Amino acid sequence: MKISPIEIFERGxxxxxxxxxxxxxxxxxxxxxxxxxxxxxxxxVYLNYIQKLSNFYAANIYFIFILMVGVFIICSRGTLPLSxxxxxxxxxxxxxxxxxxxxxxxxMFLPIILRESAIGVLMANFLxxxxxxxxxxxxxxxxxxxxxxxxxxxxxAKLQVQQY
Length: 164
Fold this sequence. Notes:
It is a single chain. By secondary structure, the chain is mostly helical. The chain has one domain (about 5-164). It is about 80% helix and about 0% strand. It is globular and about 50 Å long. The protein starts with a helix and ends with a helix.
């Protein structure tokens, strides 16, 4: 089965859209997850790569938010000639980003004694790794040309794509 260059582009664009939730996760939970480990490799990966991405996000948070809202509006209205498949996956990535933002904000509002304890580190690890696995699952299915199913997010993305 031969895949057209347009399909490759749309799949790649759909996978790249998951950078939004990854950056959001790394901004809220990255330091707690990577710097609380004993592994020198994980700490160096975080400090050399992921932290730089998180710092860029923190310095340009409003620009990235406006960009994300613009991409959401373009995909939900079908302004660009993208297939419903690409629009669905991009919207799903943005909705996942909103969930990550809400979880990160809630985590930051927890009492410091809870957030900085072993329970807080465990919660941060659970949220970070669980959502990273969800991003990898979605990216893998998109790579193979299938629709990833995320319980509430997929239904909301489907409604947005069918709206126009």
